[in-house]
Design a protein that fits this description.
Length: 408
């Protein structure tokens, strides 16, 4: 089965070709024809299965078929996601697959200023991707109205419930028009989830994919338990091996990305950092040197890495583990492009141990532990408070009680 067999319109086919996608994934094969017919859908699928394209493509096609002018403040599509990371990734998918169409989208989430979000909404957006707390803030201020929503997607419903968003979701759903096209995605199905689908969906089709066919399984993954102070030494020792020739290193913050690149340079390893504080010109120059093989290592934060398009990354190294498990899947996916097999190494200090547990829960696999000279048994055995990062001092009091813990 190829994408061209799915009856997608030409602008979407062209966008898929531009992305380099030829064959749809199992969830896309099952979901796209049903959604193009206008059916409500329950998708049991996790990150890494291609579930985002499975809903973004048919929604764009149906929007295109009944073209309407956008009214500011009244989005036609609402996608709810539990985390800002996931919301941003969904926004990127609308941008990528909608490249040859002319819909506007925006992503709103908490923990950052409302001003740019407010501005883009009041200019008029067709597609709004949101985390529940910030959406309710914007609705309460009258900035967003949901009465024009034609397509509603609830993504990662199980995590939404785990994170305590159920009341917010219910409130948002109560403001949606009754006549709408609804899509529901969850990695797992519990009685509570099943109950929610009954309230949200009308005569839905159910599609389910097992996580077997995901990229995650094609990637050789190893975890190195190590104390924070030994991460540099471990990284340097790994980079001495010849086959680590095109390495993408992920850090949690921009500051740490700069520091790692500096340490590598001091030790005569060709490396540079890219992140949001660097100019576009710098970024372009760095990417060119990396592509040309002049730099062995590119150090990046999650956000900066999203725009990177490099085919031959030999290794992804998670210098820091991400606190959102789906970022792990996206990060390591950079090393297995176009069906290639890749390798991903993760460094895990004691205060990241809980992140590793969430990653293993999401990917439903146990990552092989590597023995090495900097091995930290304390990191491997960490539980409870020791397994989590020390709480950071809040910069400003959170706006909405109850959501602050989900924001970074
Ligand atoms: P998702 O499960 O939506 O998070 O997608 C996982 C990854 O697979 C993303 O990086 C997508 O860009 C990529 N992807 C989605 N559909 C396809 C496809 N048909 N062929 C190749 N890659 C895909």
């Amino acid at each position: 089965m190829l994408f061209k067999d799915l009856n997608l319109i030409d602008p979407l086919q062209r966008a898929l070709t531009k992305e380099g996608y030829i064959a749809p994934t199992p969830i896309q094969v099952q979901a796209i024809p049903q959604l193009l017919k206008g059916k409500d859908l329950i998708g049991i699928a996790q990150t890494g299965t291609g579930k985002t394209a499975a809903f973004v493509l048919p929604i764009l096609q149906r929007m295109h078929e009944k073209h309407k002018h956008v009214t500011p403040g009244f989005p036609r599509v609402l996608v709810l996601a539990p985390t800002r990371e996931l919301a941003a990734q969904i926004g990127d998918s609308f941008a990528a697959y909608g490249h040859f169409l002319h819909f506007k989208h925006t992503v709103v989430f908490g923990g950052v200023s409302q001003v740019p979000q407010f501005k883009s909404i009041t200019k008029g957006v067709d597609i709004l991707v949101a985390t529940p707390g910030r959406l309710l803030d914007l609705m309460d201020q009258g900035i967003v109205k949901l009465s024009g929503v034609e397509f509603f997607v609830l993504d990662e419903a199980d995590r939404m419930l785990d994170m305590g968003f159920i009341k917010d979701v219910n409130r948002i759903v109560s403001m949606l028009p009754h006549k709408r096209h609804s899509l529901f995605f969850s990695a797992t199905m519990s009685p509570q989830i099943s109950e929610l689908t009954k309230r949200l969906l009308t005569d839905p089709v159910r599609v389910e994919v097992t996580p077997q066919a995901t990229t995650v399984e094609r990637i050789e993954q190893k975890v190195f338990f190590v104390d924070q102070d030994n991460k540099d030494a471990l990284l340097l020792s790994l980079l001495q091996q010849d086959h680590l020739n095109c390495v993408l290193v992920f850090t949690r913050t921009k500051h740490r990305a700069n520091k790692v690149a500096q340490t590598l340079n001091k030790n005569r390893v060709g490396a540079d950092a890219i992140h949001g504080n660097k100019s576009q010109a710098h970024r372009t120059r760095v990417m060119e040197s990396f592509r040309a093989g002049e730099l062995q290592v590119l150090v990046a934060t999650d956000i900066a890495a999203r725009g990177i398009d490099i085919e031959d990354i030999s290794h992804v190294i998670n210098y820091d583990l991400p606190n959102e498990p789906e970022s792990y899947v996206h990060r390591i996916g950079r090393t297995a492009r176009a069906g290639a097999e890749g390798t991903a190494y993760s460094f895990c200090a004691a205060d990241e141990r809980s992140f590793l547990r969430s990653i293993e829960k999401l990917t439903r696999m146990e990552i092989d532990v590597m023995r090495h000279r900097y091995h930290s048994q304390r990191a491997q055995d960490a539980v409870g408070e020791e397994a989590k990062p020390a709480p950071r001092k809040p910069r400003a009091p959170p706006r909405r009680q109850g959501h602050s813990t989900h924001k970074r």
